[in-house]
């Protein structure tokens, strides 16, 4: 995720990172070059046969804008829902850590439970990104827990079971009464809901046909546009076509980027920073002082 002070108007015009300009640069350059050729050869027999007015482009452009708006709204809704779910993970892990420290008779048992909550957040991040959670699990959990998780396909779900087993053990020992155990079960259930919500977003992309329709329409529109503009605006055709193509290509690229908000691209959620923040706040609630360092953006980007 890009994290930076809001630049002035000139720097905003020239900023590169996070603007998707590098992703669309090849097709944008090709579109401008093609528009230049059409403009130069607009009086040739070949181009003259394809002479068009601007009227159909106005109608198609309006339809295309509606499609792009729908795609971007849908992608951003997924992005924001993912952020809300991770906010819920922070809130509920804090609630559970506080309850483990203050409600259980023997607070010295709380670190084992809290470490499982921290491991849950890291395991969830790794599952969503398709990376290996072994390093984080090894440093947070005892060897027996790591062995149990070694062959698990859905490690966050198993960690929730293990956290629930800790609650059961405390209740059976009499360190936690049944009403208090029930109260702690509510945030545990919400963590399960957050896990399922993230899995739903990660496993259910926007229907592919939307991407195909928009992609084809954008490219056909931008490559045909010079034929409708060359005769009326002449030498300015490549400039106008380049500006319109940049707008449409960039909107399409951005919607594709934030459709899966759990990746590592500049505009995705900073899951590493979120997990480090959750780990630090839960350890601090245990009274620990050896906290992980606060996340620092690298080149204005949190990963």
How would you summarize this macromolecular structure in one to three sentences?
This protein has helices at residues 9-14, 21-40, 45-48, 55-102, 110-129, 134-140, 143-149, 155-172, 178-203, 208-233, 237-259, 271-285. With 303 residues, it is an all-alpha fold.
Q: Which labels suit this protein?
A:
303 residues; mainly alpha; 73% helix
Characterise the protein shown here.
With 303 residues, the chain is an all-alpha fold. The chain has one domain. 73% of the residues lie in helices and 0% in strands. α2 runs parallel beside α10 and α4 runs parallel beside α11. The termini are close together. 30% of the residues are buried. The mean pLDDT is 90.
The arrangement of helices and strands along the chain is HHHHHHHHHHHH
Write down the overall mean pLDDT.
90
N-to-C CA distance: 6 Å
**Quaternary status of these chains?**
single chain
What general form does the structure show?
elongated
Unreliable residue runs: none
Largest sheet: none
Question: Can you give the helix content as a percent range?
Answer: over 70%
How many β-strand stretches? 0
Q: Into which percentage range does the β-strand content fall?
A: under 5%
Rg over alpha carbons? 26 Å
Structural class: mainly alpha
